[in-house]
Design a protein that fits this description.
- The complex is a heterodimer of chains A (390) and B (130).
- Chain A is built from 11 helices and 10 strands.
- Chain A is α/β, with parallel strands linked by helices and 390 residues long.
- Classes of the chains: A alpha/beta (390), B alpha+beta (130).
Amino acid sequence: MTNHLNPFEDCGLKEVHKKRLKRFLDGVQAEAHRFLGYPVSQQFDYSCLYPFLAYPMNNLGDPYTESNYHLNSHAFEREVLAFFSELMNAPDEGVWGYVTNGGTEGNMYGLYLSREIFPNGMVYYSEDTHYSIPKILRILKARNIMIKSQPNGEMDYQDFAETISIFSDVPAIVFANIGTTMTGAVDNLTKIKEILKQRVRTNYYIHADAALAGMILPFVDDPQPFDFSAGIDSISISGHKMIGSPIPCGVVLARKNHVARIARAIEYVGTLDTTISGSRNGISPLFLWHAINQKGKSGFRRMIQNCISVANYAVDRFNRKGIKAWRHKNSVTVIFPKMAENVLKKWQIAVHRDIAHVITMPNISKNRIDDFVDDMVREAEQNDVIAVKQ
Amino acid sequence: MKRITIVTERRLGVISEISESLAAADINIETIQTELHDNSSVIILTVDQYDKALQVINNIGMDAISEDAILLRLKDEPGALAKIARRFTDAGIGIRSIGLVKRDQPFAFVAISTERTAEALSLVEDVLVG
């Protein structure tokens, strides 16, 4: 039986270790209450799935291939992938994918696939791209050029156009941000494709990093182009962000014909597994499957509309206090000037150069926004910091 | 002797912050040189433990650029990188990566890694930093 004073009472550890775990849990609970700056939802309850934690679940290899390791959740993973394929307007020829350990692995997969298809390709990515991308490019030894960003965080299309003109004989691999980390800016896929067409580029590959917005744009009335219908070749979406999961996870999808090309090459080394890792998490597909079946598309739509409503409320609340805040269309990332740094630290707000942001995830209420804004204004006034007035 | 280049904001105490952090990690600075730009400082170091120093500098939140990259100061405008890239492609020098390190309006610091660093350096002397 669980002891509610210390839930670790019966876990077979020495007293000192049990106390340490309890202190750690208390700290996590306190910090979780002030968690406004990172795009992860805390609104989930997967306790009914806990019995599976008693087994060494492992989704070894390709989710569409039978495995001799039977303690897998491949069947559930395939249903999760089918759900996302529909959301992302998968092409008629089909898509292949798998549940990843998070958005970064999905981005690595997309770039790996593009590099296998175009070994001498040049990767173009904007200045506002997540820091993990240069790291991935280094691991893959993929040639790359950073493109300037506009002040709003979107790619500078003029810089992109001029840069790809220089490498006219090299296939272009475009890493497009469908929601940048800091401002939620969406790179315009229509413009990117127009530029590629104007520059007579036929050999190109577009990967979309839709870590957060991949679970927002399918549920809004007027989404920016973001999916396979907009001409992308692969996409990475996080599972632990908007859906929520105690374990980081995500989904990557790619056009099936691209994956078939690399699968043929891999066949020569004796395996058809084209995933990046071998052993894969067998629990997180169950979490995603649970959320999908519990909420359904209509539940996700309601959830997203609520997040956007709280984001609007936050912009309004900041502006009423004389702090210039804004957000992109269809984004739940509310940007405001960096100020009152102690308060930003306390609420775990990410800052970059002179801006900071709050992200109105499903667990963030209007009351929580009020508490944060009041806290920030109080600190700014105490320190005689003049807010950027409209 | 391998060089480390750091691009940081121009403010008092930067040099002492770097030297104290390196000293705390038992790394000796052998040479140090500073270039001041509008709102940025470029600090060029040689040290006795190169890899460890790179790590220490990154740990204090500064961008350390290794000797494998060429650091340039360009006009911060669309197409500026493309013009530099053209010089390398015209000379048949392959580019591994081009990345923006820091903006200092109206300029930007850019790190370029190429397949032939020594030859590449001679093509960008007019915009070279350090």
